[in-house]
Hints:
The protein is an alpha+beta fold. It has one domain: Trna Endonuclease, Chain: A, domain 1.
Amino acid sequence: MTNYRRGADFERRVMRHLEKCGYIVVRSAGSHHIADLVALRWGTGPMLIQCKTNGNLGPDEWNALIDAAWKADAVPVMAWREGRKLRFTKLVLKKLDRKRRVRSYPMTIKER
Length: 112
């Protein structure tokens, strides 16, 4: 399986999970935009989501996602997997470089 296929399958898995949780989800397939998914639900702010199978988001992608989310008044989120479990992390502060840890918070997105 190619990396593209693995990533696309993971994006669709995240999308299905969010739809089960009551979100309307738009996927920007193969576009190499800042966010892979945009999730909307009544009563919550929009989320810009970057999906990474390995959980690694470089400083440039991390900071671009935060900047775009601030401009759109949205929540910047990274979706990743730990084994077979989906994990969501809310990005809070910008990364200065690859070695320094920055503030981010785990999120739980459950079905309604």
